[in-house]
Automatic annotation (TrEMBL):
This is Glycogen synthase. Belongs to the glycosyltransferase 1 family. Bacterial/plant glycogen synthase subfamily. The lineage of its organism: Bacteria, Pseudomonadati, Pseudomonadota, Alphaproteobacteria, Sphingomonadales. It comes from Sphingomonas citri. Its EC number is 2.4.1.21. Synthesizes alpha-1,4-glucan chains using ADP-glucose. HAMAP family: Glycogen_synth (MF_00484).
Length: 483
């Protein structure tokens, strides 16, 4: 008999996405279906999500007062799988992004918006909504973190489902002042160190980690890293106390969306046997980013422009990159001062540095298909998906040795090159010297066409589909139910 899982998240591709969380949540239903797991995805009713629902049909449930606003439960589909949407106009019918206004400022009531979302998810998973019953509630990141806490402290039914809390990035925790607790509809006993209380306030991710039956992160290395103060962001003590319930499962990629041989975004499709066709895509990247044509390597960046991603170090390293005859194509947005730094670099090195601020899904595919290497100098990276896309597309990853980057890229040292298993370049510590050294190694390897193609083909042969990861999630769910 199939297991029934409610996957609760604030975003899911293709309906709403701000980063890797959306890609992962969007891919889970198809990844788990072959393993006897039926996944229903539960999303907030943002305007784009509601617009994608098919018209017709009565709401499955109504909440006259869901932490201060009326709401209803709607049903639809996402990529052929079941979707439930919390339609609460008072919380989600807004212009802007999922978490902030058009100017990028966080909504002041995010604490209430996502508490209501979590409360509704707990109701749905726990049997309080007619016709809905689930074996497991799987919560993703802080926006869903209160759902396991609601099931623990204010359960809608005595036979509440098992719960899993996945940390996609522990740096984002949903921390709020203690004054909001009275509005969360939780019993007083929940405001305790083994509940939702966190350094005198309320911690949404902390609540999920404390209350869930199992905790997962998105790579084995990150699961170890977050046990230390350098990576645990204040939660390392709690995670250490629950270490036996913590596991790291590397994210997969949706090979139906990310496949260079079938990608509709590309001027030229190709596979590992037809790598010469990438030259057409390289010319398209040059044109899109106003780069001078040439045979030298193009390094691309597809990233949030933040300190975590090491973008400050990359900005400093651009002159050295250009000096080695390489070019840079950057797509991303983030901190204003970093955006300006890359604009300045494009003006200083016209034809050698191209910058597109913002995000464009099709352009991100083109960059992977036409660039020679992708730079990912993250100071910490729970899993990372762009390096996996790079591997699949023959765009050689140049990455910091941390988190999922360390788990998924095989460094091109002498032994790995001799064995034909090297898939990219890793470097220790995110400093100017280490990044410039990695760029130098990449340009030297690129100059040897035969060896570079060997690295590309080894990366393209790696299996980073959801097959293995989906099996591990299914096993975790069954272990929880058996326990």
């Amino acid at each position: 008999m199939a297991l029934s899982v409610l996957s609760v998240a604030s975003e899911a591709y293709p309906l709403v996405k701000t980063g890797g969380l959306g890609d992962v949540v969007g891919a889970l239903p198809a990844a788990l279906a072959p393993h006897g797991v039926d996944v229903t995805t539960f999303l907030p009713g943002y305007p784009r999500v509601l617009a994608a629902l098919e018209a017709g049909g009565a709401p499955l449930h109504r909440w006259p007062d869901l932490l201060g606003a009326p709401a209803q439960l709607l049903e639809g589909e996402i990529a052929g799988h079941r979707l439930l949407v919390l339609d609460a106009p008072g919380y989600f019918a807004r212009e802007g992004g999922p978490y902030g206004d058009p100017a990028g400022r966080d909504w002041d009531d995010n604490w209430r918006r996502f508490a209501a979302f979590a409360r509704a998810a707990a109701d749905v998973a726990g049997g309080a909504v007619a016709g809905e019953r689930y074996d497991v509630l799987h919560a993703h990141d802080w926006q869903s973190g209160l759902a396991p806490a609601y099931l623990r402290f204010a359960p809608p039914a005595p036979d509440a489902p098992r719960t899993v809390m996945t940390i996609h990035n522990i740096a984002f925790q949903g921390r709020y002042d203690a004054g909001i607790f009275a509005s969360l509809a939780l019993p007083a006993l929940a405001f305790a160190v083994d509940g939702v209380e966190y350094y005198g306030g309320v911690g949404y991710l902390k609540a999920g980690l404390e209350s869930a039956d199992a905790i997962t992160t998105v790579s084995p290395t990150y699961a170890r890293e977050i046990l230390s103060p350098d990576f645990g962001m204040g939660l390392e003590g709690l995670i250490r106390t629950r270490q036996r319930r913590v596991s790291g499962i590397v994210n997969g990629i949706d090979t139906a969306v990310w496949s260079p041989s079938a990608d509709p975004s590309l001027p030229a499709r190709y596979d590992a046997a037809t790598l010469t066709r990438r030259a057409t895509n390289k010319r398209a990247v040059e044109q899109a980013f106003d780069l001078d044509p040439g045979d030298g390597p193009i390094f691309c960046v597809v990233s949030r422009l933040t300190w975590q991603k090491g973008m400050d170090v990359l900005a400093d390293a651009i002159p050295a990159l250009v000096e080695r005859g390489a070019r840079l194509a950057l797509l991303g947005s983030g901190d204003a001062w970093l955006e300006q730094a890359f604009r300045d670099a494009a003006e200083r090195f016209p034809g050698q540095v191209g910058v597109r601020l913002g995000y464009d899904e099709a352009l991100s595919h083109l960059l992977q298909a036409g660039s020679d290497a992708i730079l990912i100098p993250s100071r910490f990276e729970p899993c990372g998906l762009t390096q996996l896309y790079g591997l699949a597309y023959g765009c050689v990853p140049v990455v910091a040795r941390t988190g999922g980057l360390a788990d998924t890229v095989i460094h091109a040292n002498a032994a790995a090159l001799a064995a034909g298993v090297a898939t990219g370049i890793q470097f220790d510590t995110v400093t100017y010297e280490s990044l410039v050294g990695a760029i130098a190694l990449a340009t030297d390897l690129h100059a040897d066409a035969e060896r570079w193609e060997q690295i590309q083909r080894a990366g393209m042969a790696a299996d980073f589909s959801w097959a293995t990861s989906g099996r591990r999630y299914a096993s975790l769910y069954r272990e929880l139910l058996a326990a």
